[in-house]
Design brief:
Layout lengths: L36 E2 L1 E7 L2 H14 L3 E6 L6 H14 L2 H6 E10 L4 E9 L3 H5 L2 E2 L3 H13 L4 E6 L6 H14 L9 E7 L6 E8 L4 H22 L5 H14 L3 E6 L2 H6 L5 H14 L4 E8 L2 E9 L4 E4 L14 H6 L2 E3 L18
Parallel strand pairs: 2-3, 6-7
Antiparallel strand pairs: 1-2, 3-5, 4-5, 7-9, 8-9, 11-12, 11-14, 12-13
Helix pairs in contact: 1-2, 5-6, 7-8, 7-10, 8-10
């Protein structure tokens, strides 16, 4: 199938050859095996259109700026085939669309082959190309975003197969990843998401992150929050019953500063600056639970129609809701879904473990 036929060739058209483009359409993927080289790695051999495309992609994976491809075919439409292959790589292949600005070439005819001298101009560095991580499926994508946020990385680039989402889908996963690592959740970074190419099931997703604080300050606050959370966890650790551990940990978080509706929104604020809002308390509770090896998730939802954060914690065989903002000295409670809904809470049930009534002795209400 000839792509973009009729466009002006970049070099003089050679005569007397058969086209490489007489083929069924196939989806192009990057192969781990290098194309056949002739003499050195900057000169590759191609005997079909697909091998020509693969050769160009191999150059890109290697960061090659100048290379040659020897085409062992009749020379009739070699330049049109080269033009189509270059456009396919730059516009349709995820790696080419992400990494390459444009490709130029010139063609010379030798006795038994045509040789294309290729020049590739990049928009990304070799280090950026090498840092691309393959990830397929929601869990894998979110996991890579979690690692990037935990390290305060400024960029995360993923090659995703069978991708049917959009930029909002990636941003939603990034928000989930942010709350999954409470010590590094020190202010939601601004995120710019770009997809390469614009459509298709195989895409490269580039997420550029900008944090509200400089890296040294982020690391300082992270270290202090972790140290304080570990110390608070020691108050709950001696308890042998999980419910007692959770309630003791919750009270320890409140004792560190308490609920301040207009306070900061991080575990650092909750544990070290005299209190935090609902988001900060939920992150602090999740962080303390990490040191107790108690699964604990931050939940973003509403309470009485207003944005609100709280936790769900694992009681072993079941989960319960916990909202530190509603605690008093005599009202330490863990709740089922039904009880929380009755109290005016709403949340995305697809993202939160169900809190069913399996053991009424674990209820605080």
């Amino acid at each position: 199938m000839r792509l973009l036929a009729g466009m002006t060739a970049l070099c003089t058209l050679l005569s007397g050859c058969a086209s490489l483009l007489n083929r069924e359409y196939v989806s192009v993927t990057t192969h781990n095996m290098a194309p056949t080289a002739e003499g050195d790695s900057s000169t590759l051999r191609a005997e079909s259109y697909q091998e020509l495309v693969n050769a160009l992609l191999y150059f890109i994976t290697q960061g090659t700026e100048e290379g040659s491809i020897r085409l062992y075919v009749d020379a009739e439409d070699v330049e049109a085939d080269l033009e189509a292959a270059c456009l396919e790589v730059v516009q349709e292949d995820p790696l080419g669309a992400y990494a390459v600005e444009f490709i130029k070439y010139s063609v010379s005819s030798v006795v038994t082959y045509c040789e294309a001298d290729v020049q590739i101009t990049y928009r990304r560095t070799k280090e950026q190309i090498d840092s691309i991580v393959s990830a397929t499926g929601t869990s894998a994508i979110r996991g890579e975003l979690e690692e990037a946020l935990a390290a305060f990385a400024t960029e995360c680039v993923l090659r995703i197969s069978y991708f049917s989402g959009d930029t909002d889908y990636i941003l939603d996963l990034m928000r989930q990843a942010y709350y999954a690592n409470p010590s590094a959740a020190l202010g939601m970074p601004e995120a710019t998401v770009s997809l390469y190419p614009d459509s298709g099931q195989q895409r490269i997703v580039e997420v550029v992150l900008s944090y509200p604080l400089e890296l040294p300050e982020l690391k300082r606050r992270q270290t202090l929050a972790e140290q304080e959370a570990e110390q608070l966890s020691r108050q709950a650790a001696p308890h042998t019953e999980i419910r007692s551990q959770i309630l003791t940990a919750g009270q320890a978080v409140l004792n560190a500063g308490g609920y301040v509706p207009d306070g900061g929104s991080t575990a650092y604020h909750a544990l070290l600056t005299g209190g935090a809002d609902s988001e900060g308390l939920a992150l602090a509770m999740a962080l303390v639970c990490q040191y107790l090896d108690i699964p604990c998730q931050v939940v973003q939802g509403t309470q009485a129609g207003e944005p609100h954060f709280w936790n769900v914690v694992s009681m072993g065989e079941f989960w319960r809701h916990l909202d530190l903002t509603g605690w008093g000295q005599q009202n330490q409670s863990l709740f089922t879904d039904e009880a929380f809904q009755t109290a005016g809470y709403t949340w995305d049930t697809a993202l939160v473990p169900q809190c069913r009534t399996f053991d009424t002795t674990a209820e605080g209400n």
